[in-house]
């Protein structure tokens, strides 16, 4: 992960090292509690159900529903 930011509702937007930007889906109830520098987090994005995407952070339980912004 190259960077991350949270909006006022706690929804995150991340930028990956390859330049892709992903945002947590507003309806996702999983809350991210990231406090370390972004490069400490290794993420994997995979296809979910019905065309959705899941973001998993290495060594953390669960996943987040995300959509690609750019």
Q: Please, could you describe this protein's structure?
A:
A hairpin with a 5-residue loop joins strand 4 (43-47) and strand 5. With 70 residues, the protein is an all-beta fold. The chain is built from no helices and 6 strands. The radius of gyration is 11 Å and the shape is globular. The model has no long low-confidence stretch (mean pLDDT 96). The chain has a 6-stranded antiparallel beta sheet with strand order 1-2-3-6-5-4, with no helix packed on it. The chain has strands at residues 3-6, 12-15, 21-24, 43-47, 53-57, 64-68.
Q: Determine the N-to-C terminus distance.
A: 15 Å
Low-confidence regions: none
Largest sheet: 6 strands, antiparallel
| CA-based shape | globular
The strands making up the biggest β-sheet line up spatially as: 1-2-3-6-5-4
Structural class, please?
mainly beta
SS elements, strand count? 6
The proportion of residues forming helix, as a percent range, comes to under 10%
Q: What's the total helix number?
A: 0
Secondary-structure element order, as H and E? EEEEEE
Strand content: 35-45%
Describe this protein with a few key phrases:
70 residues, single chain, 0% helix, globular, 6 strands, mainly beta, 6-stranded antiparallel β-sheet
